[in-house]
Design brief:
By secondary structure, this protein is mostly helical. Helix content is 70%, strand content 1%. The chain is built from 16 helices and 2 strands. The chain has a two-stranded parallel sheet. α3 runs parallel beside α8 and α8 packs antiparallel against α9. The longest helix has 28 residues. It is globular and about 50 Å long. The two termini are 32 Å apart.
Length: 337
């Protein structure tokens, strides 16, 4: 693939982005670098937030200091060398060690694009900071749930929905020209696109989050189902949890259907942009289908779309991408599979 940002930054991007790198490969070159850099900046913040330092206040200070540096409000980044040593993933350690180089890459883009990237990063970091404040100082052995659906929706917007918004801003600035009504629909559907992907992650990671003392299933809806967070640690409770889980599964499907609508709004000639949106939706559809039939409380059997199927979906995307009709038919067929 042609250079995205620079050889050094591209290497970090490829090493840390995993499946997202497949999306970057097909994105239009006019926005590939900006979207790739936002991913890397957000991944850096996420690595700080997820560091097993045992000192939540220090993590909050580090992530806020990093964001202030990325926003251009500080001359130097926080010292992340100690956090880098704690990383079990060497690629994430390398990312922390190269914070200055990553942030400096912003200068490669126009002032308008820098502002778009920084605004989205600021929103993402606000969500990660809220997570640390909610869950970071929880007493070991206890589980803290979100309060209600509004809190869940706000979190999903901050860490993912805003990315759909950013993606739409970039597409409108550099790739497409649509009328005001279509633009309004694209922003609304784009936010839901991002929320869908975040909800999918939440629904398949319930056991792992519970092990960290985090429960993203709101307590008010759990109480209506005569459940408490610790009940979800017992895989035998899946039958009791299933109706509530299916409600959240339905919301994820509704958001993902909005993502399909988003793809349908893209101009016919934007086949690269269409393909870049299609692959995560196709993978998301398969993940939701699997989640609907398995015991998601069983942490030993985490739902995951396997590489051979991802490759198959990628090949189908490449076949369909040049036709909006074929693309939407593939998405509909995959949804009903």
């Amino acid at each position: 693939m042609a250079k995205i940002i620079s050889p050094e930054i591209d290497s970090l991007l490829e090493q840390t982005s995993r499946s997202f790198y497949l999306t970057l490969k097909v994105l239009p070159t006019k926005i590939r670098g900006q979207i790739g850099l936002l991913y890397l900046l957000a991944r850096l913040a996420d690595t700080i937030a997820d560091s097993a330092s045992g000192n939540t206040n220090q993590l909050i200070n580090n992530i806020k200091g990093y964001n202030q540096y990325a926003q251009g409000n500080l001359d130097d980044p926080p010292n992340l060398s100690e956090l880098a040593k704690l990383q079990t993933n060497p690629d994430e350690a390398k990312l922390l060690e190269n914070v200055r180089e990553v942030v400096d890459s912003l200068s490669r883009f126009s002032d308008a694009d820098q502002n778009r990237i920084r605004h989205c990063l600021d929103t993402i970091v606000s969500g990660q900071t809220l997570d640390l404040q909610r869950f970071g100082n929880v007493e070991k052995g206890t589980i803290t749930p979100l309060s209600d659906d509004e809190e869940l929706d706000d979190y999903a917007y901050r860490v993912a929905g805003c990315v759909g918004e950013f993606w739409t801003h970039m597409s409108l600035a550099h790739c497409i020209n649509v009328d005001k009504e279509t633009e309004k629909l694209m922003f609304e559907r784009g936010v839901r696109f991002g929320k869908a992907l975040q909800l999918i992650n939440i629904l398949r990671d319930i056991p792992a989050d519970l092990a960290l003392g985090r429960c993203y299933i709101p307590i008010d809806s759990m109480e209506k189902s005569n459940l408490i967070p610790s009940d979800l640690q017992d895989l035998q409770n899946m039958g009791k949890f299933r109706p509530l889980f299916d409600t959240h599964l339905g919301l994820a499907w509704a958001h993902l259907d909005a993502a399909v609508d988003y793809i349908g709004l893209l101009p016919r000639g934007q086949f690269r942009l269409r393909a870049a949106c299609m692959l995560p939706v196709l993978i998301g559809q398969r993940t939701l289908t699997l989640l609907g039939s398995q015991n998601v409380l069983d942490g030993d059997n985490r739902v995951k779309v396997l590489r051979p199927e991802i490759k198959r979906l990628k090949n189908k995307t490449l076949w369909a991408m040049f036709s909006r009709k074929k693309s939407l038919k593939l998405l509909q067929t995959n949804r009903n599979a």
